[in-house]
Amino acid sequence: MMDKPTILIIGAGFTGCALAYDLTLRGFSVTVVDRGEICSGTSGRTHGLLHSGSRYCVNDPEAAVECIEENTILRRIARQCIEFNNGLFLAISEEELAYKETFKAGAEKCGIPIRWMDKKDILSREPAINPQVLGGFEVPDGSFDPLRLALAFAGSARNRGAIFLPFHQVESIHIDGRSSVDFIILTDRHTGRSIEQHADMVINATGAWAGKIAEMAGVNVPVIPSPGVMVAFEKRMSNYVVNRLSLPGDGDIIIPQRRMSVIGTTSFEVNDADYIPVDQGMVKEMVDRAIEMIPAIARVKIRASYMSARPLIQTGTNARSLSRTFKVFDHETDHGLKGFITITGGKATTCRVMAEKTADLVCEKFAWRKTCQTKDFELDSYRTFYNRQA
Amino acid sequence: MKGSPSPRNFLQWFDPRGRSAGSWGFMLNRITGLGLVLYLAMHMIVLFQLTRGAEAYDSFIQLMKNPIFIIGELLVIAAGIMHGINGIRIGLTSFGIAVRYQLTMLIIAGIISAGGILFFAIHMLGGA
Amino acid sequence: MTTTWKITLRILRQKQGETKTSWQDFSLDIDPDETVLDAVERVWAFQDRSLTFRHACHHSTCGACGMRVNNIEKLTCITPIRSVTHNNGMLRIEPLRNFPIVSDLVVDVSHFFQELEIMQAPAVSSNSTANLDYEEVFPDVAEKERLIDCIECGLCVSACPVALTDEAYVGPAALSGLHQALAANALSANLALADNHSGVWRCHSAFECSAVCPSNVEPGYRIMDLRKKLMRKNFHQWFGGKEAGK
Ligand SMILES: Cc1cc2nc3c(=O)[nH]c(=O)nc-3n(C[C@H](O)[C@H](O)[C@H](O)COP(=O)(O)OP(=O)(O)OC[C@H]3O[C@@H](n4cnc5c(N)ncnc54)[C@H](O)[C@@H]3O)c2cc1C
Ligand code: SF4
Ligand code: FES
User: What does the record list as coiled-coil region(s) (chain C) (predicted)?
Assistant: First the structure.
């Protein structure tokens, strides 16, 4: 058998952490670097909605199926940091009520278990909901703690030998004479020192920053950061995740988390995702929408408003779709550059399957016959990420 | 390692910047506690003097009439009152009693102590 | 509509492996409704890329962003600049105390997390057990689950005078974790972990933990409640009565 191939993953968000776990289980020797703390990019700053797929069941059934499958798996392997209290899709207007059958058909086709609840039933369980509600569906949504979910994957990887180097920034990527990625130069930001790191393969998992990292390797990954704003309120207004019974739009979701309620979100485009100031106008619009669902939220104090950016992949690019919901750029077939892969897109909810599909591709490249095992066991406690390495 | 706990940090116990009322209780209890221990030691030494006869005792009592010592005595009493009354508060909370009202109790302890100290001050200094 | 303040951030800087520390000033024009974490992140983004600090969620759920702001422990992502200074004011930003410092504002939380893990502090619990025992929980929602209050930010440990001097002290967060584990499952929690001279008996009642905790945990209350439970248990053991629960 050949030596363990060495893989270097850039980016320790959900994607990088889940991928590190999958590849480590398959016997690769994995190192993950990030310029900041784990989850300091987009991953930390999410709503924390564990999708059931219901939001996509009408207009994007493929994404919906992926979500419900992963939702079910995470219930098994990542119970430790997820609130499973289900979600509601509320019909408040007649128009929304009319959407009922379309939604029901969509959910059934995608295999999402739903249940219609009448007004009385909803209000008795969630008294804060707008009393004008006409009815709604109960769906298997949940909410997660972002950092802890990523740490659970990262800790499980680390306990099996993966190395994590947070606060290590990638400065440049170097290609050898045979158009293969040779090494990268990192700055250890704790000491300010420069480090040369070699690997058989480098995987760019930097989400909204994927274009910038790809540029260092001289290849083009056409992503534009597309931020959204989220607002956290001081009080937990519901136990269910609350949605509108319509196609997904801005400000149409309220997610309970700890003692808070988080509302989201919007979407626009920026050039640089390093610092995105919060747009107060958007905050106001979203709060107004949230009040339609839970009127009392108008009197609750805002605890935090924050932003993060998704990677918007420009249309007309020939990225290889391992799934419709995220993109893998295989730079060997695209640009003749060996040992370099970019994965971007997706959701926190689907990070495990993104990792699975990407690891399949990595195995194919190394003719490494190992299958995915991440569905099989529960993740180690997220706190073990901080165990001192033996 | 830099930043880690160390016994050498104890001076920071008495740095009140940024600390809440609870820390004042903590600091005063440390200071009064040390003061009382010091006093007890002195007291023992003084008692030991008695073994040297009546004359020594008389001159000692004379010395004690000096206002400086009266103020010193008052400080000892003040320390005793503060330490004792705050001690009751800490004792209660340690039994899990009224923990949520520890701040109120600290304020009450402060008021009672101030009253007590004032009483002794008037009594001792006024009579002099 | 938005106002702009001019403020100075005075940040304590240090590199890993060097003993030298120094204060560095950064001046900033900023909307006072932005948070201290926003200000620190702005310094990193626009002025000095070498600055290191921890952050993830920006909405008080991950616990990574604790710092000392003008000598007080703050969860910086929910601390508006308006609440800690004034126009033309200055903010002194330091790493948390009582943790080994790695670099700049980054502290090493590994020992802290291990203590919490030993206590088997749950991360998710039912509403009825996640709340403090004196809080009212409506029966309808009591059995729904939620992430517990402690976000493992370490502010309480930084504020604790006993943790300043005693490395062995288990600390307010871990003891609260044990209290929470006990609430969630009285049978599996191990009270003995608190019943020793580095556990609940080491606390000296400064109640700083409860004063700085940004997340409703009330560690001071929980430590005292553990004492009560331990006394009850030990009393029954010593005097031969039946053990009244754990
Ligand atoms: C507003 C918003 C809300 C969302 N809400 C949800 C939700 O509720 N539920 C859900 O399932 N999904 C949600 N998502 C999607 C989800 O957050 C993302 O899919 C996920 O976080 C992407 O993770 P990632 O690891 O690919 O990227 P990131 O988390 O952004 O990770 C990229 C990492 O690369 C690092 N990096 C960048 N440059 C360098 C460099 N030069 N050197 C080293 N490292 C570098 C960054 O520091 C960063 O940590 C949301 C997305 C947005 C934008
Ligand atoms: S008890 Fe409060 S201050 Fe201490 S770690 Fe938990 S959340 Fe932070
Ligand atoms: S950044 Fe997560 S708690 Fe502040």
Answer: none
Question: What pLDDT score was predicted for residue C245?
Answer: 47
Place of tokens 């605890």: A303
Q: What is the value of ipTM here, to two decimals?
A: 0.95
CA distance C117 to chain A (A): 7
Query: Does domain A92-143+224-313 bear CATH number 3.30.9.10?
Result: yes
* Ligand 1 atom nearest to CA at A350: 11
For A119-176, the pLDDT digits (tens) are 999 999 999 999 999 999 999 999 999 999 999 999 999 999 999 999 999 999 999 9
Cross-chain Cβ contact A40/C56 below 8 Å: yes
Average pLDDT for chain A: 94
* Residue ranges of C 185-214 with Cβ closer than 8 A to chain A: none
C-alpha separations of A26 from A12, A30, A338, A372 in Å: 19, 10, 21, 7
Size of interface B-C (CB pairs under 8 A): 98
Question: All domains of chain C, ordered by start, with CATH?
Answer: 5-107 (3.10.20.30), 110-238 (1.10.1060.10)
Subunits with 3+ C-beta pairs closer than 8 A to C: A, B
Closest CA to C66 of C87, C89, C91, C97: C97
The pLDDT assigned to B61 comes to: 81
Phi, psi angle pair for A153, to nearest 5°: -65, -45
With residue A21 as reference, give the H or E element that holds it: helix A14-25
**Residue A76 touches chain C, beta carbons under 8 Å:** no
- Reduced to 3 DSSP states, what percent helix, strand and coil does chain C have, rounded to the nearest 5? 35, 20, 45
CA of C78 to the centre of ligand 3 (A): 8
**Domains of chain B (ranges plus CATH)?**
21-124 (1.20.1300.10)
* Mean pLDDT within A57-69: 94
